[in-house]
Amino acid sequence: MINSRTKLRPAITRGSRPRNYKVANGRTVIEFSGNAGQVRDAFHTEIHKYLVRGEEHWANASDLQIPAALAPVVAGVNTLHNFHKKPLHGVSKRVPMSSVLGPDATGSDGSHALVPGDFRVIYNINSVYSQGFRGEGTTIAVVGRTNFDETDVNEYRGLFDAGFGPLTITLNGPDPGIVSFGEQVEATLDVTWSGAIAPAATINFVLSASTDTTDGVDLSELYIVDNNAGDVMTESFGQCELAFSSSQAIAISHLAEQAAAEGITYMVSTGDTGASGCDDLGENVGSGQVSSNMLSATPFNVAVGGTLFNEHGQPSLYWNSTNSSDLHSAKGYIPENAWNETCTSGCSDFPPPLAAGGGGVSMFFGKPSWQAGVTGIPSDGARDQPDVSFTAAAHDGYLLCVAGSCQEGGLFIILGTSASAPSFAGVMALVDQKMGGAGSPQRQGQGNYVLYKLAATENFSQCNGSKTTGPPAASCIFNDITSGNIAVPGQTGYGTSSGKYQATVGYDLASGLGSVNVANLVNNWASVSFNSTITNLDLTPKINIVHGQSVTVTASVTNSSGNPGPTGDITLLSGSASGQRLDTLPLTASAVSLPTQHLAGGSYDVIAHYSGDKTFAASDSARVPPRWPCKPQISTVALSEQPIFLMASR
């Protein structure tokens, strides 16, 4: 831990330190690279190859020792292994278009396949489009570690009227190409469905290759946050909390906190194996361990779970016998249960035996201030997930063009919260645009501050999304899921009412606050009241600054009456709220008076962005125009008062 504004000097001897290192803009991560010998000399551990479940992996053979020069400021090393996080989806075999796009193409079990038009009807999005809100001006950053075929996305958009906004691929390092079919599915799914829900948004797919010591997912997360690369961020990977140390949990949380401080709304899938997040989707029986997804467990992201449509044997009530011009056939809202398609005998490959929505109680993070005020929230003192849910089941899976399938007359059906999270990212892009009014979209940061306050006003007796006698009331924002559970085979209590976890009225660990009526959510977002704030910024000095020179940041955040009270951080940005992030500084008694050495050379304005808290609204300072005459090389790097983590790069 760091007790003061600390300076890191490259004091490790040349022969023992990793070859290259870079301090991230947030000053809580240092990326380094080097060969196995340099890692051994610097951290006093060897890198060995291991065979685990038939797969070869690289990992450190013993606990690391932090070099003496770094020990005062470094909390730990993020990873030195390639046990990578899992993509959270399942995929069917390729099916002919005619079998899933024919009029009322109903499976023998009453199942259908979702196209974007179905999703828009079921969750009431079309009226938002009619108001002119399609995500224009917003950017959704997608976390990726494999490339994909853009032709698949364009084919899908043409077939299903599924988006027309710009699609960009941002390479962070070397292009890994298409790593595997499963990884290609994940990348294509996230890009396709985030854009399908926010059809005018820019989709920025950030791609980082995995290395022998670091997951590309981690590198892409860091790039997005470090470069302020999106208004909304979506991630569809996971690994259970039991696989992490407390220092790794802190590192993950700090990066998510930086995203929130920048105003980025960060969606993460909760997982596809119920409360047993350590298990693999294709296993027949789980381990019995109860552990939720680490990546979705932080207090600074929106955790998106899964539901299952329940046509209760009467699909004609919910699906038309003919398709519309965009090939959708859904009539309206369909009753939903907690997603659980688990199986103990005679199981099929799709859905797999452990298919169920992720959820649970964090073993690392305490109850966030915003997770309160709603019926059903457990009094467990812990961060609970999910926060919200969307359909994720194979029963009515998401259709997708992958690996040229649509050009050859075929589609794939996808299940998983990997589809739910990017879909909710699309919804948040609509919120951002709506909140910006006639101007630029307005970032919302940690969306749970608003989601839980809106849920606290719901009359859940009128908003039961699981009842089969009629839809929730037209005024409901949340479709409250009150039926089902996410217990999986191998868990204690599986198949009984004690299985973890059960859906109930209000909030629950199976579906969170439920799914959403998107139009009502977007239109009521601004109804949540926060106390307005005023952010002030000054920099000393402001002229004739040498690049890398220490500049004192003096800032304050007050309420509209000029009184202190706001908590959290301010983020220095270049030019505007969507500009390059320069630094993030903690508020103490609603103020900052700290040095920074992170103002890069050039001529630009600086603003301070305050992202808000449970009581106070976000605000931006006036622009301050410092000037730099030159950009010399520097050898001293200022670090933050947060713990510093090392991350192996390439």
Q: What best-fitting shape do the alpha-carbon axes yield? A: globular
The share of residues in helices is 10-25%
Annotated CATH architecture of the largest domain: 3-Layer(aba) Sandwich
Bin the strand percentage. Answer: 15-25%
Radius of gyration, in Å, reads: 24 Å
The fold-level CATH name of the largest domain is: Rossmann fold
Taking all residues together, what is the mean pLDDT? Answer: 87
What number of domains? 3
Number of helical elements? 11
Largest sheet: 8 strands, mixed
In the CATH scheme, the class of the largest domain would be Alpha Beta
Description:
With 650 residues, the protein is α/β, with parallel strands linked by helices. The chain has three domains: 7-83, no CATH class; 87-524, Peptidase S8/S53 domain (Rossmann fold, 3-Layer(aba) Sandwich); 533-639, Immunoglobulins (Immunoglobulin-like). The chain has eleven helices and 33 strands. Strands 10, 11, 12, 13, 15, 16, 17 and 20 form an eight-stranded mixed beta sheet that branches. It has a four-stranded mixed beta sheet with strand order 2-3-33-6, covered by helices on one side. Strand 4 (47-52) and strand 5 (55-60) form a beta hairpin. The chain starts with 6 loop residues before the first strand and ends with a strand. Residues 1-17 and 630-644 have low confidence and may be disordered.
Topology:
Blueprint: E1 7-8, E2 20-23, E3 29-33, H1 36-43, E4 47-52, E5 55-60, E6 74-77, E7 86-87, E8 90-91, E9 95-96, H2 97-101, H3 116-122, H4 126-130, E10 139-144, H5 150-160, E11 167-171, H6 181-197, E12 202-207, H7 216-226, E13 232-235, E14 237-238, H8 246-261, E15 265-269, E16 302-309, E17 336-338, E18 360-366, E19 382-385, E20 388-391, E21 398-400, E22 410-415, H9 417-436, H10 448-455, E23 478-479, E24 515-516, H11 518-524, E25 533-540, E26 551-559, E27 569-574, E28 581-586, E29 591-596, E30 606-610, E31 619-620, E32 637-638, E33 644-648
Parallel strand pairs: 3-33, 6-33, 10-12, 10-13, 11-12, 13-15, 15-16, 16-20
Antiparallel strand pairs: 1-32, 2-3, 4-5, 7-14, 8-22, 9-22, 16-17, 18-19, 21-22, 23-24, 25-26, 26-29, 27-28, 27-30, 30-31
Helix pairs in contact: 5-6, 6-9, 7-8, 9-11
